[in-house]
Amino acid sequence: MINRQLKFIKEQPTKIIEIEALLIAYEEYGLSNGWPVILSHGFPYDVHAFGKVASILTQAGARVIAPYTRGFGPTRFVSADVMRNGQQAARGSDIIKLSDALGLERPILGGFDWGGNASCVASVLWPEKVSGLVSYAGYDVIDVEQQRHAVTPSLERTCWYQHLFQSERGRECLTENRYEIGRMLWSEWSPNWQFDKETYTRTAAAFENPDFVDVVIHWYRFMHGLEEGEPALQPLEDHLAKKPKVKVPAVTVDGTSDPLKPGGTSDHASMFVGPHQHIVVDAGHNVPQENPRVFADAVIKVHGWSSNS
């Protein structure tokens, strides 16, 4: 087991721990005996999305773990022989393996974008290891079969990057223009958020990971049913295809100005069979960074539910 310190981004200490195929880098906030929370970011974001959320949660007594997902920041695959795999079962499994490696007792999982997807996946596959869920947006387990079919023209246009990544031309474009593509997506998905260059540049450093392009391309091809996943994970994907319901206490969040979620996800309520609340907030796609108080309060609410159960 490797557990060492690595200096990364403005000399902030980042911890590294080995979980089978990965050396996962993560930020840790709060006291070691705090109630555990794992916050997972998406694409094209990184752990800095949760800086203010973590500050609020640690003041409420939490121990917060914010990992760099596979393909981002200092997180690395242990070997050149390991598949650069971005599928949802892999990323959900990473969260549970990280929790086990750190000795966390049934943490609350929270996330958005890829991180919301991974947190939902972990919650439905291993509910006995999770005490609660905060998910942006809604029930975020990807139905690969459904992804094979078209959506409205306006949403297809919003998802231009997914279509681009299906081709080798798209791989080349992401390889050579990852900084610009990420900045475009931030602006498009959070149209009312006036982030500055320093904020974006700090996060974009995470895209220089040598596996970034391969992991991103694999996920978007896998989710559209155009590329195979890891064979050992297929039983988990088969289970996810049955749309298992979320049994743990959960708060789901929608942003009013997110073009990726037109109309929101309030119609997902039937997928949550435990205590559940749906919140709509004046924000775009990156709710943790645009409105950290709302996201942190959602985690605190779930903690209250799970503590009283």
From TrEMBL:
Keywords: Hydrolase. InterPro entries: AB_hydrolase_1, AB_hydrolase_fold, Epox_hydrolase-like. Pfam families: Abhydrolase_1. GO terms for molecular function: hydrolase activity. Residues 36-138 form the AB hydrolase-1 domain. This is Alpha/beta fold hydrolase. It comes from Parapedobacter deserti.
